[in-house]
C-alpha cells in the first residue's frame, strides 16, 4: 500500500504544530483529514493553500464531542489517528484551568474511546497497521536543575494546570494500550518555534511586538532555560513515530538547542536589527522590559532524543537554533497578511 492510499486523521490540524504536521504528511503522499474546532488558536488561514477535497479534507468540531469524533472516523475510515488538539498556553491554564481539563483530559478520553470502537470494527489487516499517536510535551516531566535531560524513562512531575492536564492525557493513552490493546504511541517534545505560531508564545510575540515598537516583556530575570525545536523537525519526528514506532512506546523529540529566554529575545532583536532596523536608529533590545515571573515557572527543560534517533532514524534538518530562528523571523516579515488576520482575530476575542 502506497502512502497515497493511506489516510491520517489529524485533530488540531489548524493549529501551529498540527498544521505543520499536515504539510509534512501531505508531502509524504498521505491523505489527511483535519478535525479542528477552530478555537482562538486554530485558524483556517493556516491551511488555505493545502485544503483539497479527497486529498486534505476539513471537519469542524471539538474532540470533546465523542459522537462527532466517532462520526468522522466512520465517514473517513483513516489508517492512523494523531491527536494534536490541545489547550497549550501555560499562562491561560493558570488563569482559567477548566478549558484545559475539558480539552486535554476529556477530549483525549473521547478520542481514545472513539478510536477504540473504530479499531474493534476493523479487519485484521487494518488493525495491524492502525496507530493512535498522542502528542504531548516535555512539561509533563516537571523542571530540571542545571544538569541532565528528560528522556522516555523520566518520571512525570507536572507543575502547572496545563502540564498536569497533558500528563493525564498521556496516562489515558497508556492505559488504553494496556487495558484495551489500542495501539497507542505517546510523543513528548521540547519548545516548538517556527511559522504560524499564535502570537501569545514567546518568539512570535517578541517578533510582532518589536515590529510595532511595543515593549518586549520577559518573565523574571529571563534566565529560565528551554530546549527549542523547529516545528517542522518535531512534526517530521511525529510522522516517523507513526511509520516506525512500536505501539505502547514513548518517543521524545528535542532540538538540542538550550537557550535562556533572555538569550532568545536578544537573538531576535539582533537579527531584526540586521534586516529591519528601527527608524529611530535604536536597538530593538532597548524595548526589553522585565515583568513579574510566572507562577510556578519551571526552571529548565531539555530532551535527550537518542532513542528516537536510534529506533526511528530521527534527524533534525535545522542544525542550529539561530538557523531556524532566522528563517522564522523572515517568515513573519514576509507574511504580513497572515499576521494581520491573526492580530485582527485576537482583538475581536
Strand order of the largest sheet: 3-2-1-4-5-6-10
Question: How many strands, which pairing sense, and closed or not: the largest β-sheet?
Answer: 7 strands, parallel
Radius of gyration using CA atoms only = 20 Å
Strand percentage lies at 15-25%
Based on CA inertia axes, which overall geometry fits? globular
Order of helices and strands: EHEEHEHHHEHEEHEEHEEHEHHH
Helix- and strand-based class? alpha/beta
**Spans of at least 5 consecutive residues with low confidence:** none
Quick check: average pLDDT?
Answer: 95
How many H/I helical runs? Answer: 12
N-to-C span: 45 Å
Beta-strand segment tally: 12
| Helix amount | 40-55%
In short:
The protein is an alpha/beta fold and 349 residues long. It has helices spanning 16-27, 66-76, 90-95, 98-120, 124-129, 161-180, 202-211, 231-244, 261-275, 306-312, 321-334, 336-348; strands at residues 7-11, 31-36, 56-60, 80-83, 131-137, 184-189, 191-193, 216-219, 225-230, 250-253, 258-260, 288-291. Helix 4 runs parallel beside helix 6 (161-180).
Amino acid at each position: 500500500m502506497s502512502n497515497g492510499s493511506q489516510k491520517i486523521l489529524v485533530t488540531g490540524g489548524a493549529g501551529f504544530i498540527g498544521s505543520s504536521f499536515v504539510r509534512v504528511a501531505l508531502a509524504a503522499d498521505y491523505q489527511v483529514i483535519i478535525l479542528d474546532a477552530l478555537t482562538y488558536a486554530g485558524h483556517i488561514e493556516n491551511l488555505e493553500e493545502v485544503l483539497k477535497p479527497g486529498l486534505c479534507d476539513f471537519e469542524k468540531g471539538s474532540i470533546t464531542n465523542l459522537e462527532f469524533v466517532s462520526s468522522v472516523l466512520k465517514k473517513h475510515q483513516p489508517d492512523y489517528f494523531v491527536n494534536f488538539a490541545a489547550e497549550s498556553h501555560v499562562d491561560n491554564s493558570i488563569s482559567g484551568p477548566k478549558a484545559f481539563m475539558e480539552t486535554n483530559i476529556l477530549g483525549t478520553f473521547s478520542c481514545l474511546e472513539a478510536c477504540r470502537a473504530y479499531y474493534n470494527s476493523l479487519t485484521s489487516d487494518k488493525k495491524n497497521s492502525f496507530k493512535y499517536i498522542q502528542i504531548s510535551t516535555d512539561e509533563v516531566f516537571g523542571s530540571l536543575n542545571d544538569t541532565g535531560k528528560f528522556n522516555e524513562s523520566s518520571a512525570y512531575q507536572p507543575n502547572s494546570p496545563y502540564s498536569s492536564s497533558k500528563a493525564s492525557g498521556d496516562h489515558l493513552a497508556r492505559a488504553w494500550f494496556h487495558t484495551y490493546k489500542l495501539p497507542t504511541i505517546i510523543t513528548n517534545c521540547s519548545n516548538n518555534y517556527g511559522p504560524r505560531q499564535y502570537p501569545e508564545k514567546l518568539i512570535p510575540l517578541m517578533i510582532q511586538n518589536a515590529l510595532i515598537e511595543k515593549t518586549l516583556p520577559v518573565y523574571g530575570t529571563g534566565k529560565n532555560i528551554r530546549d527549542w525545536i523547529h516545528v517542522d523537525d518535531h512534526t517530521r519526528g511525529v510522522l516517523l513515530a507513526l511509520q516506525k514506532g512500536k505501539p505502547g512506546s514513548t518517543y521524545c523529540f528535542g532540538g538540542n538547542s538550550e537557550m535562556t529566554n533572555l538569550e532568545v529575545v536578544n537573538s531576535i532583536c539582533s537579527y531584526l536589527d540586521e534586516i529591519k532596523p528601527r527608524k529611530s536608529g535604536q536597538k530593538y533590545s532597548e524595548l526589553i522590559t522585565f515583568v513579574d515571573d510566572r507562577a510556578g515557572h519551571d526552571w529548565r527543560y531539555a530532551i535527550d532524543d537518542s532513542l528516537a534517533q536510534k529506533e526511528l532514524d530521527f534527524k533534525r534538518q535545522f542544525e542550529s537554533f539561530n538557523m531556524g530562528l532566522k528563517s522564522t523571523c523572515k517568515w513573519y516579515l514576509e507574511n504580513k497578511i497572515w499576521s494581520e488576520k491573526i492580530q485582527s482575530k485576537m482583538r475581536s476575542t
